[in-house]
Amino acid sequence: WQKFPVVVKKLRKFDRAGKIAGPGYLQGINLMKNFYRPSVLLQLVGHCNDTIVTEVHRLLDARDLETRFKEYPLYNTLQTRMQLCVSYVDILRTLHSGHDGKIYVQCDANHIQKLAGQFLFTEDFRLVLSDVDSMETILLNGTNKRLIKCTVWGEVTGSFPAPEELWPYKGGYDASKLPLYDEKIEIWKIPDVCWYFLGDDVSTRQLKRSLKDIHKQCKNRNARKRPTAEQVYKTYLTIYKDMIKSNFSGFKETV
């Protein structure tokens, strides 16, 4: 397109959630076109019916994190890995900002690989959100919020979803009876996502210890007591800057 490489994607007609080119698809297109901070989303070049054209991100999505680091070993550093944690929470705080009276919540990220597949790597190993067609919108009216529940994929289980997303009653699952919740379901998942980006290498241990307090707050079973994405972002950014300032002294361990 005008000498720039682009991705042309023809959408599937159906998936487990039903017809693709429905309200969710159209909502996603509108969000990509009109979002107030487009740099955190995949850039839309154009669309027609079930075909969309977007910018190219050659490093693909975050499911292949370790493969990308093997291909680009100079980026496989504590700084880059922590930068991914910061980038992820930066996107969340943008979605949760309440700009134009709306908070956006991802509703099809019930395990870490599914969530990772919704983010693309930029060439400098930051993130952009590419999957926006399963967003639920929390409408704000002053201090009041219209709460949501993510039920399109059926019952969720496991430790990755927030406690309030799980079926709380005895008997069979009934989506209509599931209690409502808000964007704090995404705060619960932040520690798991950051751990995924940091990896398991021994060199990350001290950095993980420095994140322990904020991550403990994120995992509070009382959603109201969890920090906001903005608060997590500020804490992450402070730790990230301290890493750079100290040249990683005190943050990196070796065997």
TrEMBL record:
Topology relative to the membrane: Single-pass membrane protein
Keywords for the protein's UniProt record, in alphabetical order: ATP-binding, Kinase, Membrane, Nucleotide-binding, Transferase, Transmembrane, Transmembrane helix
GO CC annotation terms, alphabetical: endoplasmic reticulum membrane
SUPFAM superfamilies xref list: Protein kinase-like (PK-like) (SSF56112)
Gene Ontology terms for molecular function: ATP binding; carbohydrate kinase activity; phosphotransferase activity, alcohol group as acceptor
GO biological process terms, semicolon-separated: protein O-linked glycosylation
Residue stretches spanning the membrane: none
Keyword field contains Transmembrane helix: yes
Localisation: Endomembrane system
Signal peptide segment: none
The protein's name in its UniProt record: Protein O-mannose kinase
